[in-house]
Amino acid sequence: MMARRLAKRRGQLALRALLVVEILSGAGLAHAQARAERELEIELDAPATCATSEQIYERVESLTGSLEGSRHLRAEIGFQVLPNAVQVKLRTEEGGEAFARDLETPGCEEAVQTTALILALALRPELRAATASPRTAGEEALASAPAPLPPAGATQAEPAQPPAGATEPALPPTEPAQPAEGTGFATERAPEKTQAKVASPSTWRGVASVGGFGGVGMLPTLVYGFGASGGVRRGGFSGEVYGFFQPALRVAVQDGTTGGDFSLWAFGVRGCLMRPLGKPASHFEAGVCALGEGGQLNANGFGTVTTHSVQTAWGALGAGVGLGMQLGGPWLLRLDTSVLVPLMRDVFQIDDGGQTVRVAQVGEVTGRLELRVGLSF
Hints:
Layout: H1 2-39, E1 40-45, H2 53-64, E2 73-81, E3 86-94, E4 97-105, H3 108-123, H4 126-130, H5 137-141, E5 178-179, E6 186-187, H6 192-199, E7 205-219, E8 221-234, E9 237-253, E10 258-276, E11 284-302, E12 309-328, E13 331-342, E14 347-352, E15 355-361, E16 366-376
Parallel strand pairs: 1-2
Antiparallel strand pairs: 2-3, 3-4, 5-6, 7-8, 7-16, 8-9, 9-10, 10-11, 11-12, 12-13, 13-16, 14-15
Helix pairs in contact: 2-3
C-alpha cells in the first residue's frame, strides 16, 4: 500500500516538473523572439509573394546564431520587383546614425539573402573575420555593410581561429577600409576582377512576347492583326525586334459592289524606357517608346471584270507610351499605344469598265493599340 502511494506521488511530481519545464521553455522562446525584435526592427515594403519580414528575420538569425548583445538596429527595406530583376533599397539607423544602400539582385530569393547578409554583418561585424572561405561576388559587394558599435562595457568577440595544424585559405589582398562617398559605409577594395563583376548595377536579360493589335487611320476601316517580339532588357531600358501580320480586310465602294482587300506584313525595331509607378515595390511600370518598321502592303481588287493586284512597300516611324504589369515570376503583361507616320502614302484604285474608281489611300497618321503577354528570361 505504501509502495503504491510512493509511486503515485512520484508520478505527480514528474508531471508537475514536465509542466514547469514546458512553461519555462515557452516563456524563454517568447522572450528570445521579443528580444530579437527589439534588437532588429524591420519595416518591409515588398510584395507578399516576394518576401516577408519573418523570412528576413529567420535568415539574419541563421547567419548570426543569436542577436543577444547587439544594439538596436532599425531597417527600412523596399523591394521593387521588375520583369528581370529585384531592386533593393535599404535604409538602416543605429546609434543615431543613418545609412543607405541600393542594390539589384536577379530575383526575390537573392534579394532576401542579400538583405539578411547586410543586416547580419551590421549586427555582428566579427562575422567578416570569422568567415575564412572565399566569398562570392555578391558577398564581396556586401562587405560595405554598416557596422554598429559594441554595447557599452562589452568587448568585441575575437575572430574565430582555425584548428591547430590547419592553414587559412589565402584571401585576396585588400586595401584599408575607406568610407564610401555619400553612404557612410566602410568599404573594402577587392581585386579588379571582382570589382568588374560588381560594377554593373544590372544585367542584360532576354524578353519575348506575343499578342494582338488594332489600329485606325491607315485605311478607311479598322485594322487588326497579331504578332510577336523578342529582345533584351537592362534595368528600365529595353530594345526588341518585332513582326506582325494583318490579315486581308475589305474596303468596299459603290454600294459595296467593288473595292479591294488589303493585307500587311512588316518587321520593326522598338526601344523603350520604363519606370515603376507608385511605391518601389509596385508591380506596374510606364514609359515612352520609339519605333520604326517596314514591310509590304498587298491590295487585291474585287467586283470588276479584270482582277487587280498590287504590292507596295510599307514603312513608318512613330512613338508611343507603354504600360507594363508584373504577373508573377517571369511573366508580364504589356499594353502599348503608338502613333505612326507612314513614309509612303500610296493611292489604290481600280478600273471598272473604263471608269477609274478610287478605293483607298494610306492615311497621313495611323494609331495602334497593342496588348501582349511576355516572358523575361
